[in-house]
Amino acid sequence: MNPQLGQLWVYLAASPLLGLTVTLLAYQGAFWLYRRSGMNPLANPVLIAVAVLVLLLTATGTAYESYFAGAQFVHFLLGPATVALAVPLYTQFRRVRAMLLPVLAGLVSGCITAALSAVLVARLFGASLPTQLSLAPKSVTTPIAMGIAERIGGIPSLTAVLVIVTGILGAVGARWLFDALRLRDPAIRGFAIGIASHGIGTARAFQVSEEAGAFAALAMGLNGVLTALLVPAFAGWLG
Amino acid sequence: MRASLTTLLALQLAGEIVTRSLGLPVPGPVIGMLLLFIALMLRGGPGHELQGTSHGLLQHLSLLFVPAGTGIMAHLHRVADEWLPLLLSLFVSTAATLAVTALVMKLCLRDRAAGEAP
């Protein structure tokens, strides 16, 4: 590297501008691919952007900390975005009030199944405790799941990736599972997808029908709240 | 945009203060979300401005996960060591959650339909 270019790199590597710009560029590119694929859940833009950034940082020998010094400005918005989830939750809540009892029963049973089965299967196959704790909130929307992981001693960034993979699994596989179980009601199908695979599943449900999408969005919001209340309360039992 | 962003940040701050001072295990922004939800119930819905701001934030929600998700690079050895329990856990738990949620709801709806029949 010639001296001038070397100096330029030293400046850029130390400035928050580079981490921020690279994050936005990686996401833009990943989103373009996602659209080109016809919004195929397997081409999830977060997964692609993360893979590109990990390769880039590894190839240039950049530490995650110096990247995050810039990327933290994007990361900070997760907090207000989580608060803002109350708006769609409120809109959906009014719409599905008539089905309150089945909705609550599905919510509680789904919430417990999601956290408990994830932890138990991982435990059975010898996963370490931090890994088990990172899996517990895997069915809820990423900002809430990461907050829970941080609180209970999991690894928030591992949780973020597990959440996305869970969302993709649900979005791709739910249709097949529901058909096998002969479940046809779009409200039930949508609600279960929202419980199991949060926003990625909800996006898929909206592609199927407006009704399925509304129930999925409600399920995602309610499950985020209930999991945030239940999982930290019982996480101590795992130790 | 300005007033509604202030509202969101103020509620997040209130949430952080509540969880930390009471020692609650719930993340602060989740408490902020509950506070906003209660406020919306009392006021009968979000104003035009809050609707717009939250829509704007949530429309690009997935972008906001990218910096944290990239943190996985520090834990790749863990994924390499524990890929089998991780994969099995995700597959089994996702399928079980979908099935249990849907079957429980179906059961409740059938009971209700049976109860209403003459």
Based on CA inertia axes, which overall geometry of chain A fits?
Answer: globular
Overall form of chain B: extended
Q: What is the average of the pLDDT values of chain B?
A: 89
Counted by DSSP, the helix tally of chain B is 6
Query: Percent range for helical residues of chain A?
Result: over 70%
Distance, first to last CA of chain A: 51 Å
The multimeric state of the shown protein is heterodimer
Order of helices and strands of chain B: HHHHHH
Share in helix of chain B:
over 70%
- Distance from first to last alpha carbon of chain B: 54 Å
**Largest interface pair:** A-B, 106 and 73 residues
For the secondary structure, the number of strands of chain B is: 0
Main sheet: strands, sense, barrel of chain A: none
Instruction: List low-pLDDT spans of chain A.
Output: none
Short key terms for the protein model shown above:
heterodimer, A: 239 residues, mainly alpha, 0% strand, B: 118 residues, extended
Protein architecture, described:
The complex is a heterodimer of chains A (about 240) and B (about 120). With about 240 residues, chain A is an all-alpha fold. Chain A is built from twelve helices and no strands. Chain A has two domains: about 5-75, no CATH class; about 85-239, no CATH class. Chain B has two domains: about 1-60; about 65-120, no CATH class. Chain B is about 80% helix and about 0% strand. Chain B contains six helices and no strands. Chain B has helices at about 1-20, 30-45, 50-60, 65-70, 75-80, 85-115. Chain B starts with a helix and ends with a helix.
Map the helices and strands:
The complex is a heterodimer of chains A (239) and B (118).
Chain A: H1 3-14, H2 16-36, H3 45-60, H4 64-75, H5 78-84, H6 86-95, H7 100-124, H8 129-135, H9 142-152, H10 156-180, H11 186-208, H12 210-234
Helix pairs in contact in A: 2-3, 2-4, 6-12, 7-8, 7-11, 7-12, 9-10, 9-12, 10-11, 11-12
Chain B: H1 2-22, H2 28-43, H3 48-59, H4 66-70, H5 76-81, H6 83-116
Helix pairs in contact in B: 1-2
